[in-house]
Automatic annotation (TrEMBL):
Residues 13-111 form the HTH hxlR-type domain. SUPFAM superfamilies: Winged helix' DNA-binding domain. It comes from the Bacteria. The keyword Lipid metabolism does not apply. Gene3D superfamilies: Winged helix-like DNA-binding domain superfamily/Winged helix DNA-binding domain. Keywords: DNA-binding, Transcription, Transcription regulation. It comes from Halobacillus mangrovi. The keyword Transcription applies. This is Transcriptional regulator.
Amino acid sequence: MSTPTDEHGKLKCSIEYTLKKIGGKWKTVILWHLGIDGTLRYNEIRRLLPGVTHKVLTQQLKELEEDGLVSRKQYETIPPKVEYSMTAKGETLMPILELMHEWGSDHQENV
C-alpha cells in the first residue's frame, strides 16, 4: 500500500514525510546529540553511537546533510577535520526529540 501524493509528487501524509527525513536507526540519535552537545567531529559522533558502522554513520550523516538538517564543515588540515552541526531547520526538530526523550525515559523498561 503506497501513500497518496498530490499533483506535485508531495506526500500527503506529513508523518510519513517526517519519518522519511529522520527515520532509520541512527538519524534521531545523531540529531539528538548534535542538538544537545552542539557541534561534533565525526569520531565524537561515532563514540556516542558504539553500535553504528562507519558505512552506516557516513550514509546517515550524508542524508541528514542532503535534507538540510545537519551541516558539514571540512577543514583543510592534515589529518582532515570534519565537524557536524545542526542547521536551523534541524533545530526545529528539537521539541519532537525532547518529547521522544521524555517518553523513552518514562517508559523504558529495565533491561
